[in-house]
Amino acid sequence: MNPIPRISTRGYYDLSTGSTLKNNSYFTYPKKDFKKLVNSKELTIMIHGLRNDNAGAVAKVLLAKKQLRKLGYVHPVIGYSYDSNTTGAHLIKHAKHALAVGQKIAKKNGRNLGKFIEDFKLTSPKTKIRLMGHSLGSQVILSTLEYLAKKKQNIGVVEGVYFFGASITEDVPSSKKYGKIIQSIVNSKVVNHYAPTDEVLNWANNEKYVKGPLGLNGATGKPVKKYRQKLVKPKNHRFASYADVLNSFP
């Protein structure tokens, strides 16, 4: 099997504290596959959630690619792999700390993914870039948009954003700060696939680990024009279940 092209920041952040270990921007693998992506009409980057090691990250890209191909999407689908397998994430008693560390790392990765997008657009200005994020991956995307919004030349640089089981808060699409960022950096639309039945988001909400996750009941307030939401019924919180109920893309 050919390796899945991915952008990675593995080993850049401490899994038990979230502190930065390396200030590098990112690395790409395999290099030759990234050369082939230059001048593609478009590409989609899949960003996984919490509790994914490198193999988990690769599995999510394969799931995304398989489903998008089924829906007739023919462009490259690549992965973004970051330190989300935080210490103790699988144990209930450590869940809150592990999630907090995961969120901290996800926020920091906004700079890393943002840098990749800027760099790639320099070599391939016409390529449209779409971002898909599952669960904590939604935070990576939000922080990426925030990073990109610091420069005027990044207006409309991300073609579209697609959230699945998003763990960012429900007020984001209508907030003054993020609403403005979404409108300026995302060219076409942000699509949020939300599921009131999602057991993990329900648990996180009830425990007040995430107050009002966007992926649970959709957005509150008056979301910005480029925001859309779709009610879906996945079997559970796993990305595989969200991929199963995805019926159109982009």
UniProtKB/TrEMBL annotation:
InterPro entries: AB_hydrolase_fold, DUF726. One of its GO terms (cellular component) is membrane. Keywords: Membrane, Transmembrane, Transmembrane helix. It is found in: Membrane. This is DUF726 domain-containing protein. It is a multi-pass membrane protein. Signal peptide: none annotated. It comes from Nitrosopumilus cobalaminigenes. The keyword Translocase does not apply. Its main location: membrane. It holds the Pfam family DUF726.
